[in-house]
Amino acid sequence: MKINLLKLRELPILLVLVGISLIITVVNPSFATLENFLDLLKGNLTLAIMSLGMLLVILTGGIDVSVASVITAVTVITGFFLIRVSSNIFLALTVACLAGTALGFINGCFISRLKIPPIVATLGTMSIILGIVLYKTNGNWITGIPGDFINFGRLTVFNVTLKSGRVIGFPVQGFMLILAIVLTWFILKKTVIGRGIYAIGGNLESAERMGFKSARILTFVYSYEGFLIGLAAVSHTSIMRQVDPNAFLGFEMQVIAAVVLGGASTLGGTGSVLGTLLGVAIFCVINNGLILMKIPTFWQKIVVGIIIVGSIAIDMTQKQRAERKQIRVDVEQA
Question: Global pTM?
């Protein structure tokens, strides 16, 4: 199957990514090295996996500001499980995904069954979950992660040896991202649920008239997002080798910004897996570039704010233009 790059909807995002990368490379050539790219990948796996979950939520026209609290809770649960029960990676992964799915399911029920607006429901669960986590941990780090799990987190494949003698390779946690990519793409492109997600984001009432069960689909979306957060929690814990209950403060804004930067409409109905991955890449490249160019890190927060506000403004402008065009057509036909 041939892919025409010129017709690719994500082409503008790809060009932006290439342009930013070239600028940073000119300023600091160390950016365009295999070592830096692998470090970037490993450092942003959590963001990439969580962004794929957020993509489905935004496609339905919703928003989830509880993701930072949810992954904090799941990492704490995972840490306690590893220390007190078992260091088996598969058991830890199962526990983390079940915990994340359960918390996502709660969000989904509030939104789909009780009809609470997504921003209100997830804002409430964010506060509740964070409060419980801080009560259980007192804000203290969880250390003493078993050696077996730590050794797993250090595994790499396709290793190469640099001139400096350092051995680098593809991190084993990257396979969790690959799993998340394949699952998310399959759901959106090959299933009825995927078509329903786009339909609900386009127009909820029309989607229900077409036969899509919006309550079931929304519950699935938030549960699936929780499942991916479980994957991200295990990935993060295996890389950091400890659990910091305060590590994800404000992280929800980065997740939302990455998805929006990848072309997903905050109004719902528009977005793709490829676009989201490119958005994550741009977000990571910008942050890494600011560091390499020795620009103060507070600019990162400013950039995130500009991305979110600018993207929403563009979405609203496009929606207003489409509505005016539709009104004009209806008048002419009348």
Answer: 0.91
